[in-house]
Amino acid sequence: MHDMPDMPPMPAGKTAPSAALAPVHALPSGAPLPALRKLANQSRERGAFRATLVAQPHALELLPGTQTPFWLYGDALSTAPGSPIDGPIAGPLIDVREGDTVEIVFINRLPQPSMIHWHGMPVPPEQDGNPSNPVEPGATRVYRFTLPRGSAGTYWYHPHPHMLTAEQVYRGLAGPVIVRAADDPLAEWPERHLFVTDLKLAADGAIAPNDMMDWMNGREGQFALVNGARRPRIAVARDERWRVWNAGSARYLRLMFDDGRRFEQVGTDGGLLERPRRDLTELLLAPGERAELIVRAAADGSASTRTVLTAGVYDRRKMAMMHGSLPPEPACALADVEFASGVDTPGAGTQVHRALPQHLRTVASLGEPTAHKSVVFSEKMDMAAMHRPGASNHGMPAGMSFMINGASYDPARVTLTSRRGEVELWSIENRTDMDHPFHLHGTQFQVIERELEGVATPEPFLAWRDTVNVQPGETVRIATMQSMRGERMFHCHILEHEDLGMMGALKVT
Ligand code: C2O
Ligand code: CU
Ligand code: CU
């Protein structure tokens, strides 16, 4: 197919020879959280957002004295050979408004075909970066779409090439999108953005390739970066609205503060909830998911306190090589957070504490479904095939199949068919021994209930999502409706599983 680096063949009877990894402390930590760079709007017209986004190789010095070759998104101004891409390892933030017409000129300067997928956004199918719409190396295309009313939320963009999504994302290609509403009740709140990505760095500074365990369980490097930084410092001196993205391939973020402090959730993938979820001490963000949180400054007059924003232990039941499962990985510190008391707040007129409205917006139910769809996750491991020397396909090991409805993704096949405008109930059943985050393109959906061990639990609140975790043996039921004709993808958002076939095509007629 295309020219691409291959993984060395596996020696018989051995697991993947994991390259020596850079020690965690080799990467400096403790710097203030870098702000996301913003993609500048080149249009002066009202309601229009126009920009250029280039995907290109670009080396950054992460380990002192060593260059790490990333693939990064940059704007048109940073495309001259050798010019630095200024800012953290995350694509620039695309900050737009409901009603905007967005026009992105995409230039592919990678050695592989690529495209931009607008994760979670209601863009027309032919603008949504399907694997069937690649932009070849050296080629350019324009993505054009208008953001409808009600689409405000926290989204992201990343490549989606057939069997190469995991690699392009782990090399650095992923960026945040915010769509804002004119009547956002939290518009006045100070915002903080935490774009969490994964990095697996070899000792020599190279980005480590996937080994067998990465393919099986999804890749998790030794680093969870926030806005491209390891364990940055965050000072919260005012009540803040946080937007958090899980843009890692496979790491589950069970978000919590080490001192057990409470926070509120005000939004999911597709924007605000109807009312805040108060007194949370933790929130699970599966790969691909986003959330909006309210994080409070220390009470007036109280002393400052420090704590750690942590991804707590989550047992997603990673598979061991032969059988059984691996122990869950230990908790991982994402950021050091200092909660300052209002006294330290600089600048008169800066409001420290804010009251959160009881009602954020109306989230209407989609209504009674008139059609049913069934999605079944399954997997098959052929150990003999996995260990045959040279048994790999574009760096992907042979013998490992991740399937939807009994088959691995085939670009020539339609998995399911839907009718435009019809409310559907989808049952997503996980018949494997590990968690898989289900993701559907083109629209937001509502989780109706989750059934585990014969007990169905109705979802306690209405919310718009595009990604939902499905535990082993669990069936999650969602209500959804597609509003545009064309091809949509649905898949596990552990990107290695997606590349290994846990993806289906939905034809909307
Ligand atoms: Cu974020 Cu089809 O993916
Ligand atoms: Cu998507
Ligand atoms: Cu999966």
TrEMBL record:
Main location per the UniProt record: periplasm
GO molecular function, one term: oxidoreductase activity
Keyword vocabulary terms for this entry: Metal-binding, Oxidoreductase, Signal
Residues annotated as domain Plastocyanin-like: 85-182, 398-508
Record carries keyword S-adenosyl-L-methionine: no
Entry-linked InterPro entries: Cu-oxidase-like_N (IPR011707), Cu-oxidase_C (IPR011706), Cu-oxidase_fam (IPR045087), Cu_oxidase_Cu_BS (IPR002355), Cupredoxin (IPR008972)
A Pfam family per the record: Cu-oxidase_2
Gene3D superfamilies linked to this entry: Cupredoxins - blue copper proteins
PROSITE patterns: MULTICOPPER_OXIDASE2 (PS00080)
Highest taxon of the lineage: Bacteria
GO cellular component: periplasmic space
Subcellular location: Periplasm
Name under which the protein is recorded: Multicopper oxidase family protein
Organism listed in the record: Trinickia terrae
